[in-house]
């Protein structure tokens, strides 16, 4: 895709803007605000807010630890300098491709919302997958980075769903 950056038929600016929905700050701040607003008015909404906050933080901490351990070179290093592979325990941002943080966040939030609002689950999951795939289109990540990031987000969300809702829905993880 990188060689297509000059192609006016591909809306890279719009795709980049869309991919920013995968930034964890939106969900952390939004969940905190929602929790504060709803904690006394509607405990169910406050609980959802706390759950989304927790899944965003848990998956975010996990993905950032894994990024440092693996130190995978970003696609741009291969495209420009033919550097590919891993630089174990690297803190350099160009070696933090694996797994994708945006994909982790997108799928953690999408899965979380799909579990608590099952009527809209297909839309939440489709949006999460689209955000994740946008990272490949933008050559920010390899497909494997996005797949593992998505799985990490999904797993974190399902684990915390069990923690938050185990008395109400014992073992019900149907997506």
TrEMBL record:
- Major subcellular location class: membrane
A single GO molecular function term of this UniProt record: hydrolase activity
Q: Which GO cellular component terms are attached?
A: plasma membrane
Which Gene3D superfamilies did the record assign?
Answer: Phosphatidic acid phosphatase type 2/haloperoxidase
Signal peptide range equals none
Which SMART domains would you find in this protein's record? acidPPc (SM00014)
Q: Please give, as recorded in its UniProt entry, the membrane topology of this protein.
A: Multi-pass membrane protein
Compartments (UniProt record): Cell membrane
Name of the protein in question: Phosphoesterase PA-phosphatase related
Which species is this record about?
A: hydrothermal vent metagenome
């Amino acid at each position: 895709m990188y060689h297509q950056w000059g192609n006016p038929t591909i809306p890279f600016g719009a795709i980049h803007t869309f991919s920013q929905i995968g930034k964890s700050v939106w969900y952390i701040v939004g969940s905190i605000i929602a929790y504060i607003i709803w904690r006394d008015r509607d405990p169910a909404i406050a609980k959802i807010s706390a759950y989304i906050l927790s899944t965003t933080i848990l998956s975010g901490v996990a993905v950032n630890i894994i990024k440092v351990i693996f130190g995978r070179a970003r696609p741009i290093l291969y495209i420009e300098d033919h550097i590919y592979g891993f630089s174990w325990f690297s803190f350099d941002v160009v070696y933090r491709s694996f797994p994708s943080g945006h994909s982790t966040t997108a799928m953690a939030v999408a899965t979380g919302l799909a579990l608590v609002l099952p009527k809209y689950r297909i839309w939440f999951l489709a949006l999460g997958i689209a955000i994740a795939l946008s990272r490949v289109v933008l050559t920010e990540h390899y497909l494997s980075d996005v797949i593992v990031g998505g799985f990490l987000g999904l797993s974190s969300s399902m684990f915390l769903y069990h923690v938050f809702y185990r008395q109400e829905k014992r073992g019900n993880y149907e997506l």
